[in-house]
Design brief:
233 residues; alpha+beta; Alpha-Beta Plaits; 2 domains; four-stranded antiparallel beta sheet; 8 helices
Length: 233
């Protein structure tokens, strides 16, 4: 399976510049605020909010920023009027992209994403032109202890599949069963998220791959872009 989130990779890096850290804090507080607005401010009853808070803690997001984001989400504090977006695009070598984000101005976000794509050999496409190439999956990232016991837990948890990746196990679930599988495995997780996973991967030569990586980085420099998924092998 492919379509890995490039922002998730950035979050796992041990050394992050102050600028990047501030940008990640901003992205996660928006994620927390939107989750609280849509499904309530109690993380025990809102799994999406709970997972967003856990992501914030992993990058040392201060507790007061988490609390303020929740308060903004439920309306106890004034703040940005946030909305989520999904844009579909082609990148270098005609790889397929799904770009997810949260913004207070969707027209501005669309214009910025279009500009980044145009400068990096990509182009925006109409809704539905790309999504069919991906499946929506719940994904748990768990440190791989290479034990049969952990593998057995995953198999018995109701997960669809799992694979090894750089010292981690990526566990795939149906989106609606992510939290249930997480509880069944009963293991500390690096991250829990709902992602777009490419049905088929596409290989590129070294030059086009470098162009694609530059595009991913440029997109993720946008404060509005949360995640970038691709079918790049």
């Amino acid at each position: 399976m492919s379509g890995h989130s490039h922002f998730a990779t950035i979050k796992r890096k041990k050394e992050v510049t102050d600028k990047k850290r501030g940008q990640i804090f901003s992205k996660i507080t928006r994620l927390i605020a939107l989750a609280a607005r849509e499904r309530g401010g109690n993380p025990d009853a809102n799994h999406r909010l709970k997972n967003a808070i856990e992501e914030g803690k992993k990058v040392n997001l201060p507790k007061d920023l988490i609390e303020k984001a929740i308060q903004k989400g439920v309306g106890d504090l004034s703040g940005e009027k946030l909305e989520s977006f999904i844009f579909e695009a082609y990148g270098p070598g005609n790889i397929s992209l799904i770009i997810e984000g949260i913004t207070d101005n969707k027209n501005r976000a669309l214009g910025e994403v279009k500009n980044i794509l145009n400068k990096n050999k990509g182009k925006i496409v109409s809704e539905g032109a790309i999504k069919w190439q991906f499946s929506r999956k719940g994904i748990l990232l768990i440190k791989d202890d290479e034990s049969e016991e952990l593998e057995l837990k995953i198999i018995e948890s109701g997960a669809e599949n799992f694979e090894r990746e750089d010292g981690f196990l990526r566990v795939y679930t149906r989106p609606e069963e992510l939290e249930k599988v997480k509880q069944n495995i009963n293991q500390e997780v690096e991250s829990a998220s709902i992602e777009w996973v490419a049905k088929e991967e596409m290989a590129l030569d070294e030059k086009k791959r470098n162009d694609a990586e530059n595009l991913f980085e440029s997109l993720l420099e946008s404060n509005d872009v949360q995640q970038v998924y691709s079918n790049l092998k």
